[in-house]
Each structure stands twice: as structure tokens, then as C-alpha cells.
């Protein structure tokens, strides 16, 4: 039953991304970002960005 309430809404992947550290949906236009292995990652805060950049690839 809980799955009914936990369904994710469709996201516009052109305009939004999911922060790989905390899972928050962020707008690409205003989010902090970092590149690794040719892929861009987007972050909700400096804390998430720092956590990501301090982890090995």
C-alpha cells in the first residue's frame, strides 16, 4: 500500500537532476555542479558537492 503514496512524479530531466548524495531533486540552472569522467553531476548544497568531490571516483 505504501508504494501507492511513494510513487515518484515524472521529472523533466532536461531541467532537473537528482543530487547523487542526498537524493534531492534540483534545478540544473541553479544547482552547484561537478564533472567526473565526462558526466556532470548536480548538487543541492555545498555540503553535498564537497562530499561528492572528497570521494574517490
Explain what the structure shows.
With 57 residues, this protein is α+β, with helices and mostly antiparallel strands. It contains 2 helices and 4 strands, in the order αββββα. It has helices at 2-6, 46-54; strands spanning 16-18, 25-27, 32-36, 39-43. The strands form 2 sheets. Strands 1-2 form a two-stranded antiparallel sheet. The chain has a two-stranded antiparallel sheet with strand order 3-4. The mean pLDDT is 87. InterPro entries: Ferritin-like_SF (IPR009078), RNR-like (IPR012348), TRASH_dom (IPR011017), YHS_dom (IPR007029). Residues 19-56 form the TRASH domain.
Structural class by sheet pairing and helices = alpha+beta
Mean pLDDT metric? 87
Oligomeric state, counting identical vs distinct chains: single chain
First-residue to last-residue Cα separation:
38 Å
Total of DSSP H or I helical runs spanning 4+ residues: 2
Low-confidence segments, given as residue ranges, are none
Helical proportion, percent range: 10-25%
Shape: globular
What proportion strand? 25-35%
- Cα-atom Rg, whole angstroms? 13 Å
The secondary-structure element order is HEEEEH
Main pleated sheet? 2 strands, antiparallel
- Spatially, the strands of the biggest sheet line up as 1-2
Strand segment count: 4
Domain TRASH: 19-56
Protein name: YHS domain-containing protein
Pfam family, one: YHS
Amino acid at each position: 500500500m505504501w508504494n501507492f503514496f511513494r510513487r515518484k512524479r515524472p521529472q523533466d530531466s532536461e531541467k532537473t537532476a537528482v543530487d547523487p548524495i542526498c537524493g534531492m531533486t534540483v534545478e540544473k540552472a541553479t544547482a552547484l555542479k561537478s564533472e567526473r569522467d565526462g558526466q556532470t553531476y548536480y548538487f543541492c548544497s555545498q555540503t553535498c558537492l564537497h562530499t561528492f568531490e572528497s570521494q574517490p571516483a
